[in-house]
Design brief:
single chain; 208 residues; alpha/beta; 5-stranded parallel beta sheet; binds CO-5-methoxybenzimidazolylcobamide
C-alpha cells in the first residue's frame, strides 16, 4: 500500500486524513512500525527540513505535529501490545526549556508496551522534578532533548540527582535528535538510545 498520502497529509497538517490513512493502512495489514517510520516520522523529518529552509514556520510545524500525533494515537495499541509484567518504573520527560514531546511520547509508549510502569513528567521538566520522581520510586530516569540550546539541562539533572544522593539508586537513559552516545557519556548518563525501539531494549538491560 502506498503510504505517501499519509506522509503528505502529516506535512500538510491534515489530521483527519492522517487518521483515515493510518486506519486504511492498518486494515490493509501494513505493519504499524512501517507506518510509523516510513510515513509519520519521515514526514516530521521533512517538516524539520522545510523549517530549516525557511519554507515552514512554527505554526506549520505545530499543525504537522498535531496531525502526526493523531496518527500515532491510532498506532499506539499496535505498537505497545504488551505481554509482560512490570519491568521497572521509568520517570520520563523532556528536559527543562524544551517543549518537544512527540519522540518522548513514542518512547514512553514503547516502554509501556514492554511492561514498564510509566511516570510521564511531561515537557520542560525541571531537574528537581526528576529528583522527586526518583524519590517516589522510579528506578530509571529517561530524558529527551530536541534542542541543542537546552540539552545541557540533561547534565544539570544528573548533577541534581547526585546532590540529592540518588545517583546510585537510579539508571539514567537519554535520547533525542541532537543527543549522541558521546554526549551521553560526557554528562555521566548510563545509556543513550537513538530511537524508541532501541530505548526499550536498552531500558530492559539497564534494570535487569
Ligand atoms: Co521544533 N525544532 N522548535 N518544534 N521541531 C526541531 C527540533 C529542529 C531540529 C527543527 C529544525 O530546525 N530542523 C529545531 C532545533 C534546532 C536545534 O536545536 N539545533 C527546532 C526549533 C529551532 C524549534 C523552536 C526553537 C522554533 C522557534 O520557536 N523558533 C521551538 C522551540 C520550542 C521549545 O521547545 N522551547 C520549536 C517548536 C516546535 C513545535 C512546538 C512547533 C513542534 C513540537 C510539537 C511537539 O513536540 N508537541 C516542533 C517540531 C514538530 C519539530 C520537528 C519538525 C519534529 C520533531 C519531532 O517530533 N520528530 C523537529 C525537526 C526534526 O526533528 N526533524 C524540530 C519526530 C520524533 C518521533 O522524533 O523527537 O527525534 P524525535 O524522537 C525520536 C528519537 O530522537 C528518539 O526516539 C524517538 C523515536 O524514534 N528519542 C529518544 C527521543 N527522545 C528520546 C528519549 C530516550 C530515548 C530515545 O530515552 C529517554
Amino acid at each position: 500500500m502506498d503510504l505517501k498520502p499519509i506522509f503528505e497529509n502529516v506535512i500538510e497538517g491534515q489530521a483527519d486524513q492522517v487518521v483515515s490513512g493510518v486506519r486504511s493502512a492498518l486494515d490493509a495489514g501494513v505493519d504499524a512500525g512501517v507506518i510509523l517510520n516510513q510515513a509519520l516520522i519521515a514526514a516530521m523529518d521533512e517538516v524539520g527540513a522545510r523549517f530549516e529552509d525557511g519554507d515552514f514556520f512554527v505554526p506549520e510545524m505545530l499543525i504537522s505535529a498535531r496531525a502526526m500525533q493523531a496518527g500515532l494515537a491510532l498506532l499506539k495499541p499496535h505498537l505497545a501490545a504488551t505481554d509482560q509484567k512490570a519491568a521497572g518504573k521509568i520517570a520520563i520527560g523532556t528536559i527543562k526549556g524544551d517543549l518537544h514531546d512527540i519522540g518522548k511520547n513514542l518512547v514512553a509508549m514503547m516502554l509501556e508496551g514492554a511492561g514498564f510502569e510509566i511516570m510521564d513528567l511531561g515537557v520542560d521538566v525541571e531537574p528537581q522534578s526528576f529528583v522527586a520522581a526518583a524519590q517516589e520510586g522510579a528506578n530509571l530516569i529517561g530524558m529527551s532533548a530536541l534542542l541543542t540550546t537546552t540539552m545541557n539541562n540533561m547534565g544539570a539533572t544528573i548533577e541534581a540527582l547526585k546532590a540529592a544522593g540518588l545517583r546510585d539508586k537510579v539508571k539514567v537513559m537519554v535520547g533525542g535528535a541532537p543527543v549522541t552516545e558521546e554526549f551521553a557519556k560526557s554528562i555521566g548518563a548510563d545509556a543513550f538510545a537513538s530511537d524508541a525501539s532501541s530505548a526499550t531494549r536498552i531500558a530492559r538491560k539497564l534494570v535487569s
